[in-house]
Amino acid sequence: MDALPEGDNWLAMSSRTLARLHAAYLIAEDPQRRLDVHKAATLMHQVSLVQHILTDPNLKKVLIGDEVGLGKTIEAGLLIRRLLDQNAAIRVLYLAPARLVSNVVNELRDKLDLDARKWSAGNSGDARLEADRLVVASINKAVFGDNPKMVVNSGPWDVIFVDECHHLSDWGISGGKPNQSFRLVQQLVNCQPADGRLFLMSGTPHQGSEARFKNLLRLLADDGQTLESVAGKVIYRTKDRVRDWRGQPLFPSRQINPPIVVSLGGAYEKWYEGICQLYDAPTNGSSSRNRATGWAKGQALQWAASSVQAGLGFLVRLSLRRLGWDITHKTLHDAIGALRPYRGGPADESIPSLYARLLKQIGLQKESDDTVSDLEELDDEVWTPDPVQLSELLREGIALLQTEAADAKWEALCKVIEAAGDEKIVFFAQPVETVGVVATFLKKRFGVDPAIIIGNQSDDERLSQVRQFQSPEGPRFLVSSRAGGEGLNMQRARRLVHLDVPWNPMDLEQRVGRVHRFGSRKTIIVDTTVVAGSREVDMYRIAREKLALISSQLDPEQFEILFSRVMSLVPPKELEGVIGGAPPGPLGLQESNAIGKLVTEGFKTWNSFDDTYRHEAEKIRAIDPGAASWSDLATFLTRYGDASSTDDVGLPTFEFRDDEIVAVEEKLPALEFGSKIYACGDTGGLPIDSLNGRSVYSLGLNLPEVTEILRSRFIPDKLVGCALLRLDSDIQSALNVESIIGLLFFIRQTIHYELGNSREVALSLVGVALSSSGDVTELTSDRQAEVVRSITKAQRSKEPASPEIRMKMKAVENEMIPKLRMPSDEEISRGIRHAVWPIAAIAFV
């Protein structure tokens, strides 16, 4: 162009072109949206996962197997946010266990501004399944009664998430034995449109059963059966492998202390062995010797090992379930009275009232829809305990409550509590009776009420207890039953105490995952109390010794992490069968060998699992984060948004020092923009210190006021296209091209077409340098970033470029556009196409 519109000039034209290039660079060179502002922490492993999934057309169905504590709910929310940005008309169903629904809804609403509706039991839900576009639903309610048909008919759902998907079970070798949850998800997936998406999420997806795991993977298969294409659809990452944006670790290590073995005395050991014998005895003298299953016995022994109160409560419920006793039975009457205060009831509760509550709880367990229960699992075996033996065990349990055995474990805990100083501590037990007695003990000994998590609380009550504990001024202790083992964040504490040992090792890992997560500040310290003479002492000693032997060639410092992963792959039912089926007393050589075999198989499974799926995590880590930086954004707003720099602001962050994460004060540059002060850097969703008494906000490309400036510079009111610049040493150094005469920049939009729909999967800035000899050099990402930063501050020229240069640049532009638009054969087969626009021409004069 030789002439400009009246009133325009080449200096102004150059300024508009450079501004457009700068805006395009910020938008196109931030593919992972690092420069957006989020209420949730923008962790690299989370946003990289989203980028990886949404740019690969083969990842319509994915299992996100990130380790417990890596933030799968936020990952899900980021995926939902991006998918809704692409198509606001899609419908998203997020299925979660009942106890997690409120937490998921709150995270999506509060941290990601998503209008998530809740569908759960009771009156707290606000969703309309047939109409709402983003519903978080209780899978417990969804499979109850006639609800499965209603849920399926409410579809089709374009996007389905299944949280804690390890609860979906199909034990058939090649499928065919699904539980209700598995069957429901299968039906929902079958009803999805051809381009529908499925996201399965679990920190422990394998669980030691190869058949169950493969059947879970079949949900990801294109045909619902074959597994050849599934490996790349499983994303498995661990805490020790993820990093922050600066390449620093995000999580501290673990210190697992040796178990504290507490003797409860001879009377207790006799009672414990008596419970074991109760389940081993023949039924009614039958020659068939119809005994209870090993895992059923295991449950009784675990409750008895947790606390005398829990063991007695188990036996009381057993007499109600199996023998049909009522309060006219004197021994049961006395045992019910001895349980008081029971599960939040008053110490002087009448026995008929408590009896009625017990019956109701047993009924809820049998007919549960959305109840978060702390009751033991019910078995289907036709088995009846000997009434004489059971009566004697009830009497022995009542007597034990009056002895030191009732509080001996908690007295031993005091040494752990004293060693912790003023630090907060999380205590975990399986039975709610143990939670109650420990909470009472802590209040009596230390004078403060602990926070409590138990199964019969409402969602609001449970979350309120966690929020109080997470508050710096909140209670020092939190005591939880197994109802708090999944989905809750308790990382204000770094100390955790197992008050008992579940025989399902996955439960141990889920517990530790409540404190070992993003925001943990120091090495996680885990203590365990076990009762002398119980199976737990031998079980974990044998397991640790065996794993230490077979993994001796690995890094000893990684043993604790390895132990938790390997044990999470040991089949729980088989482990319970070995331990529960053993005779009274210490575990013998036969049981020791059987446990050793399970650990060996678990180690092999972990090795295989790790080898098969780790490469997908490495691909995610290698994703290009883009070249745009916070300083590029600051420069842009200073030039074009009347922003001005001000004093740095403080951000509380963390770094490793001597194997611990310690709090440090990081300084971030700040901008005064509009009437507010903004921190110009990655705050990770963390609170920012005020500056001179004024609030400080997080800056981001997605702020409306920033978006408006980007739009006005990218699409200005006046003509734009060419900038005339003086070639200086900075530009020459950044380009490293001989006899440079100009630069051309293009926006390349990558689009995926499928079933009549299209969506953007990538946006990139492509720059090429032209030499006087006619050579054309495409700029690498790093060099392009240097060039953009150099030319946006270069001296402009008043004179137009020579006709010869203009002709060469026009010819190259005409050649580059079809070249950049041309998809490869592979891209054509995948429905990938490219749209290309020339953004800026830079001529050096």
Automatic annotation (TrEMBL):
Organism in which the protein naturally occurs: Methylomonas subterranea
All residue ranges annotated as the Helicase C-terminal domain in the record: 412-562
Residues in Helicase ATP-binding domain copies:
53-223
- Top-level taxon in the UniProt lineage: Bacteria
Q: Which UniProt keywords apply?
A: ATP-binding, Helicase, Hydrolase, Nucleotide-binding
One Gene Ontology term of the molecular function aspect: helicase activity
Residue intervals passing through the bilayer: none
| This protein's name | DEAD/DEAH box helicase
Please name the Pfam families in this protein's record. Helicase_C, ResIII
Q: Which residues form the signal peptide?
A: none
> Which SMART domains does the record associate with it?
DEXDc, HELICc
Tell me the InterPro entries matching this sequence. Answer: Helicase/UvrB_N (IPR006935), Helicase_ATP-bd (IPR014001), Helicase_C-like (IPR001650), P-loop_NTPase (IPR027417), SNF2-like_sf (IPR038718), SNF2/RAD54-like_C (IPR049730)
Gene3D superfamilies given for it? P-loop containing nucleotide triphosphate hydrolases, Tandem AAA-ATPase domain
